[in-house]
Amino acid sequence: MEREPAAAAEEPGPPGRRRRREGRMRTVCSNLQPPPGAEEPAGKGAPRRRLRGGAQHLADNRLKTTKYTLLSFLPKNLFEQFHRLANVYFVFIALLNFVPAVNAFQPGLALAPVLFILAVTAFKDLWEDYSRHRSDHEINHLGCLVFSREEEQYVNRFWKEIRVGDFVRLRCNETIPADILLLSSSDPDGLCHIETANLDGETNLKRRQVVRGFSELVSDLVSEFNPLTFTSIIECEKPNNDLTRFRGCIIHDNGKKAGLYKENLLLRGCTLRNTEAVVGIVIYAGHETKALLNNSGPRYKRSRLEKQMNCDVLWCVLLLICMSLFSAIGHGLWVQRYQEKKSLFDVPESDGTSLSPVPAAVYSFLTMIIVLQVLIPISLYVSIEIVKVCQVYFINQDIELYDEETDSQLQCRALNITEDLGQIQYIFSDKTGTLTENKMVFRRCTVSGIEYSHDANAQRLARYQEADSEEEEVVPRGGSLPLRGGTGGHPSARAAHQSQSSRAHRRTGSRAEARRVSMLTELTAFSSPMEKDVTPDPKLLEKVHECGRCLASARHQEHPLDHLSPELSDIFDFFIALTICNTVVVTSPDQPRQKVRVRFELKSPVKTIEDFLRRFTPSRLTLGGSSVGSASMAAKSAPKASLLSTLANDGALLRLEERLGPGAPRLASNGYSSAADNWAAEQSAMGPEPGPELRYEAESPDEAALVHAARAYSCALVGRLHDQVSVELPHLGRLTFELLHTLGFDSIRKRMSVVIRHPLTDEINVYTKGADSVVMDLLLPCSTDDARGRHQMKIRSKTQNYLNLYAVEGLRTLCIAKRVLSKEEYACWLQSHLEAESAVDNREELLFQSAIRLETNLHLLGATGIEDRLQDGVPETIAKLRQAGLQIWVLTGDKQETAVNIAHACKLLDHDEEVITLNAESQEACEALLDQCLRYVQSRSPQRTAGSLSVGFAPLCPPSEATASGPSLVIDGRSLAYALQKNLEDKFLFLAKQCRSVLCCRSTPLQKSMVVKLVRSKLKAMTLAIGDGANDVSMIQVADVGVGISGQEGMQAVMASDFAVPKFRYLERLLIVHGHWCYSRLANMVLYFFYKNTMFVGLLFWFQFYCGFSASAMIDQWYLIFFNLLFSSLPQLVTGVLDKDVPADVLLAEPQLYRSGQNMEEYRPRTFWLNMADAAFQSLVCFFIPYLAYYDSDTDIFTWGTPITAVALFTFLLHLGIETKTWTWLNWTACGFSVVLFFTVALIYNASCATCYPPSNPYWTMQTLMGDPVFYSICLLAPVAALLPRLFFKALQGTLFPTPLQLGRQLAKRSPGKFRAPRETSAQGHIPEEARTKLPGQRSVSVARSVSRDCSSQVSQGTWQPACSPEAGGEPSAVDMGMPWREGTLPDRLDSQPSRSSSPGPVAVEGCPGGSRMKPMSASRPAPLPSVFSVPGLSSLNWMSSLSLVSGLGSVLQFSRSSLPMDKRDSDFLPGSAQPDQDLCDLSGQTTDCF
Amino acid sequence: MKRKCQDYESRLPDNTAVKQQQLPAFRLQLTASEILSGFFAIGLFCLGMGIILLLSAKSIKEVEGNVYLYYKLYGFYQNLYRYILSRSNIQLVGADVKDVRNCAPFRTSDNGLPIAPCGAIANSMFNDTIVLWYNFNSSTHIRVPMVRTETAWWTDKYVKFQNPAFQNLSSAFAGTAKPPNWPKPVYELDEKDPGNNGFINDDFIVWMRTAAFPNFKKLYRRLHRIGNFTEGLPAGSYSFIINYNFPVSRFQGQKAVVLSTLTWSGGSSLFLALAYLVTGAVTLLASFSMMALHLKLKERKTFFLQ
Questions:
Q1: Where is this protein localized, as stated in its record (chain A) (predicted)?
Q2: Nearest CA distance, B238 vs chain A (angstrom)
């Protein structure tokens, strides 16, 4: 917005100038003010009149999303429908019938199908519009409180009655009806919180602020805001759709101006939380609100199949023209032949002369086009739309795509690209939040160069991996477990109480409630117990306590921090930074979304200390009211004068503020001293007295993780207000930090900072938290001369080492740093910062600069490693998708090390495979590297191609080794930028194509989308992009199919996506099952459509040879027109919607089957033309059998045409029968319905009118035919004869050269139960998890007992013990004892063994004959237990457990697996995913034997 | 919070067979072994049908029983598009004799009177007379008794074609002209039988049912089974006396006269029987080859499933 910066300070300008600005600005004033002129000063009258005039054309709050009104429906809808070219074509054809010389049908009749199609579409639109209207009506009639001038109070009004300039009062949990400028809040700080879930899906609370500078002027004394006193004028932007921006200013009566920002605006659709009541003035209403401006409907894309289909439709048009042309020439010649003959059947023109050949040919051509128009399937588009809608419905309904945890299912946002899902070749995935959970878990940290590895914490996390987080609440914690109840392990009364209360809470809740609570927790904050509870590292904990003790004893002295050693001081600062350097809001779970407002003066047990502190450092914050007034304000507000005067000599800060002059926004603006006290009292009355369990609501999960980590070290964040943060510290009690500034996180700075005044030292500190790459560069350069500097250097290099280590472990790293500002430095910075804040023009830019100025010369405190855990089933999903022939690229903004590590964890990279890493510093280097890599790849390519050839036909065997042998490519963002240059992109692509997987690190959103675009355009491949965050939006939009993860990073990705899945793993089913089905269904349906129409038109065309090419049709025109629409449409729709060529379980077990879609095997040009040829053949048969049967008979043309129609119908249905792979009762019904409908309609039609329907005049034709045996014999013979070749060749092909799909089908039929078994267990996946809720120790005992009972002779109790002892004791060493394999050796053995693992199997089974008896003990997936059966190697057991015989044993074995250290789990147990294939091979082998 | 708990509804989709696409289904495998039996069945069925049809066609004794006399035209296109349009059903049903809207170009005569029956079909009506004589011996020629009614569909004669409601047929057609090609007006088509005159004349009705192909036959007369002819046409020599009115040489057409009987399976055409036989044979052949394949591949199957 180009606005003069001076405008903020100047008086209202001359009218002329204002008018000029009016185009870009909106001005709003109170509706409550009386009409201008009456008692107002003349000076103000002028602008107000103008404003009134301006206000008249502002939108009201009525929501109207309907497209049509009753009157406009028809024209508007028709206009929209004619945007589709096909409709225009069909109408054109229909209109051709009105030309007498060429008409083929009765004009009215010819219009019927077009009208029918148009009507169906129109009806659909109407229905949609009506449902929109109903929902609009509902929303419009919601109620809210609006201030009424007449009654001088808030009255209930409908939403639709709200107008711009109205004052609205909202209460807690109400939905905001319009975009409202916040004028008053019940919160003493002038704050309120809103939840924007409806808008962007983010469930954390966002803070909004009463208009700065306004509150003092209006409501300095009254506790309740009085709208009648509001006389200011608001100037703001025209309505726009930018949710993140709002600018404007408010002009008070006295001419003062104050800026308005995004923080002042409450957006429509959000929900008010945590705040009792707010009052605001409506700025934008109805369709001008940002929420509605952002609301764009579903997206329309055209799928690849549809493009191909359109191309084939063009071929059909060409064919139609050719046929018509052929016919026209034939007719011309025919006419010429008979022209001179004056034959009796010649129909002359009206003037008696015969038609000359050329015009006759032209007429014939046009008539033929009409007659053969069926070749272009009029109902194709409608049918496809119907089928797609149903497909979308079924995808949405799939219970296996439902995520219980988040209570969400898959969402299809794009309705018409379902079949693209079956053809994807490249998947581009984001990492964070997509492959990983985006649930941050604190893992380890380093402070002052010393690393704290948090081993116990790692073990705890390993346990969580096993037990589902939600079940945890039912479990009373065993004493042997390390304490994880936050501060529970420490002798603090408060903490003990806390854990007590939380436990009570857990015990009272039923399981269902516990689940709901956990769900609620999940929704409201990022704090599942897994993240909340951090087991502290004992060493560090000890240091923290020591630190606290030191400080507690030294706090009365001048510089308490100086008494700490540098290390302890760093530790102290480190935890302070973790606790306060964030924007976490503290709430209490008992009162959801109610901010805990603990007034420490009233309640804190350390009141005296606080008092002391206040005396020691007279901070105004300790006064609690946080009421700061400027001199000018103090003068105005008399009752506060005394208070303010005492405050005035508080410190340098205040004076500085005064120096900055009146009008400048104050550091902490708040005028609610009295109101604040009221509220505080109320709050304290409401608040639960014993320290409630606090809940942290953070904007990002990292923040929450760090705060929780700090809390585990007894540094608990207990309260955050607008300008202060309270922290509970060990031995020190509650400390309150005066929060001077919060410099929020942004992706350019990659860091955030808070500026606080330290209560102990009264120093001004800056705590910065950010990415290591950034923060490490901002550190204070330290000299190498003195010891201190050298020490610092050492610490830094150590920290850097640990950071690298963390990155290798796949942890997200953050550096924590601190800077101490002198008062002068701060004052200097503050001045510029305040200028930046008050600036109206490019405020963001200035603030950014200001932040950069502050965040320099930092002192490094330490670093944290946060684990972003892999989502469930990611490695398995990736393995399956790979098997399906999909190439997976990961594009991430993360560091290379982190990305590579995650890639290893999710099996994208194998440890033993080659990784090509491209890190180039310059364009030339990049080119050279690329060349080198290409040479290398080419040198090894011969063997690769040989390998891939050998796999050509082995669809039922384990995945080919050839695909696994390719190298992987890792490229960083910088090199990627070079590689994406025009001259290198081909090389890069060629290289990438050869690689098994590609990993792009440090890539920007733009690069992501460029990569996708490149692959899409250059490789002509189908691409799918999946991501969850705003940074993936561009990539999602560019890809053919965009998938959003409806996770925790807001809804932008989902909004931009075509499909939204709750978790990455659902992609497997979405693509491999639904994608395949959708593609195969639609491809087959489209082919069938083409076949059907060609075959039908063929019948008509062959007849032309017997009617002098005169374009007459033997099929009654009613049949001709309605055949496609009514008689033969339903069965194909049912098949198109329901047919499953291969069952889901086989598809999942054999992902290779997906390749058929990638290679377009079902619908490619060759199949299309074969299909057309078959159609031509069938039409020949169906024409000539009736022809020859009736040859030399006295049949008439339409009596002969009716059997042909019937034959065609039967042929279509039988053909569909051949093409349909699964016959459900719906298919049978549809086919029966078609036949019955045809005969019923024919009978009724032929009995309805004796003189109607020229020219066929079919009175009693069908009735007569049905008494004719010839009719039946034709109806039997012709379809059979027509379809025999197809059936025969299909059967031959299915026997001799079966496609993988056919093999899959055969397999499914031969062994249906064997595939169902794994699916059932996965469907009941939660049941085994419930079983796990039992205490691990107990369970192991009970299992041990059952084992000993069942096969006591073979397995002694003693051998069992080692395996379960780690469970009970929690000793890691015991685990090692139980597991014969170690980290390093295991993968190798796994890789080498699966092929020759069969021999030990029988031994194992023999060893325990009771194994079969153990079956009833059902449990989840089987897993090996080497210690029980001394079988060497894991893979043999894998094989063994694949036999259903030992599935019971599997459940016993399950356990030893759970006792594995957590970090081994991902990598070590993955080979289990190869199990189904192996399984399948075995099964297929068996089935063959049976066969 | 309690309320929230009640409001909470799971979005878990219904676990029904339809919604989960788990309907029990019959799966057809298109492999030799699976459809072998089907092929056999089809083949046998077709062969059986063929044999039945063949036998029934063979059972026809040429001129015994109900003998029908047909005239046959070659190269006469009654199925031309413009030709079949040129008629007025309203006129033919007797509702409005003057309704000639659809009869272009034969709507009105030169003097402006509406033509009855109008249109190209009616105008081109076959008007040869064919009389069959039985040469009992060299001197006695018996005119074979023929019925000229009931050659058309019942519904045509009694529903679709009606004379205008007048006592006197000629007055009913007053104010109309005869078609140009006709030698006499429509009410003189069969002056002997009022039930066969005017629009309801069987010859006329049969002609108006336009033939499907350029070569066609139309039923002309039925044998009146009396006297010598109760058992059909006795063996002997016959002669046709044909009054040639209908010119076909102009358009290189031909005319023929056919005497035939009918069976339940239509005319004496052997085509359907042969078609069934051929289809059956081919199907059986295919099924044998498939069986051979199946037997041969039975051992190989284990190979490619592993």
A1: Membrane
A2: 23
Q: Which of A172, A1138, A1192, A1274 to mutate against chain B (most B CBs within 10 Å)?
A: A1192
A396 to chain B, any CB pair closer than 8 A? The answer is yes
Question: What ipTM was predicted for this assembly?
Answer: 0.95
Q: Is the peptide bond before A1151 cis (omega within 30 degrees of 0)?
A: no
Taking the Cβ of residue A1291 and every Cβ of chain B, the question of whether any pair is shorter than 8 Å is answered with: yes
**Is the CB of residue A524 less than 8 Å away from at least one CB of chain B?**
no
CA dist A1108 and A1098 (Å) reads 16
Rounded distance between C-alpha atoms, residue B198 and residue B120, angstroms: 17
3-state secondary structure of A716: strand
Cβ(A835)–Cβ(A845) under 8 Å?
no
Closest residue in chain A to residue B78, using alpha carbons only:
A345
The rounded distance, in Å, linking the Cα atoms of A537 and A545 is 12
Sign, Cα dihedral of B193, B195, B201, B206 = negative
Query: Cα–Cα–Cα angle for A1210, A1212, A1214, nearest 5°?
Result: 70
CA distance A1016 to chain B (A): 33
Length in residues, chain B: 306
- Taken as a whole, chain A contains a residue count of 1491
Torsion angle defined by CA atoms of residues A1029, A1033, A1039 and A1045, in that order, rounded to the nearest 10 degrees: 30
What are A718's two structure tokens? 């207990």
What are the chain B neighbours of A1226 within 8 Å (beta carbons)?
Answer: 23
Structure tokens given for A527: 């704090």
A1316 touches B: beta carbon within 8 Å = no
Residues 403-442 of A with CB under 8 A from B: 404, 407-409
pLDDT above 70: percentage of residues in chain A:
68
- Quote the tokens at residue A673: 């001293």
- Tell me the C-alpha distance between A1026 and A1053, whole Å: 9
List pLDDT tens digits, range A407-459.
788 888 777 788 899 999 999 998 877 888 777 788 888 888 888 878 777 77
Query: To the nearest whole angstrom, how far is the Cα of B239 from the nearest Cα of chain A?
Result: 23
Q: Give the active site residues of A.
A: 430
The answer to whether A340 faces chain B, any CB pair under 8 Å, is no
Q: Which residues 707-726 in chain A show a CB within 8 A of chain B?
A: none
Measured between CA atoms, how close is A830 to chain B, in angstroms?
45
DSSP H helical segments within A141-259, as ranges? 197-200, 214-219
- How far does CA B169 lie from the centroid of its chain? 31
Yes or no, beta carbons of A1107 and B77 under 8 Å apart: yes
Which residue, among A418, A410, A425, has the nearest Cα to A1075 in the 3D structure?
A: A418
Sign, CA torsion A1385/A1391/A1394/A1395: negative
| A1187: confidence class by pLDDT, cuts 50, 70, 90 | very high
| Residue A195, both tokens | 């939840």
**Minimal CA–CA distance to B63: which of B252, B262, B208?**
B262
Band (pLDDT 50/70/90 cuts) for residue A294 is: low
Residue A1095: band (very low, low, confident or very high) from pLDDT cuts 50, 70, 90: very high
Helix (H/G/I), strand (E/B), else coil: A726: strand
* DSSP character at residue A243: T
One-letter identity of residue B146: M
Chain B interface test: which of A1074, A1288, A1293, A1487 (most B C-beta within 10 Å): A1288
Given pLDDT bands bounded at 50, 70 and 90, which one contains residue A223?
Answer: low
CA-nearest of B272, B273, B267 to B60 is B267
A1199 vs B: CB within 8 A: yes
- Residues A480 and A946: their CA atoms lie apart, in Å, by 58
Q: Looking at mean pLDDT, say which of A237-246, A1042-1051, A1153-1162, B18-27 comes out highest.
A: A1153-1162
Nearest Cβ partner for B153 among A513, A1192, A1260 = A1260
More reliable by pLDDT, A706 or B46 = B46
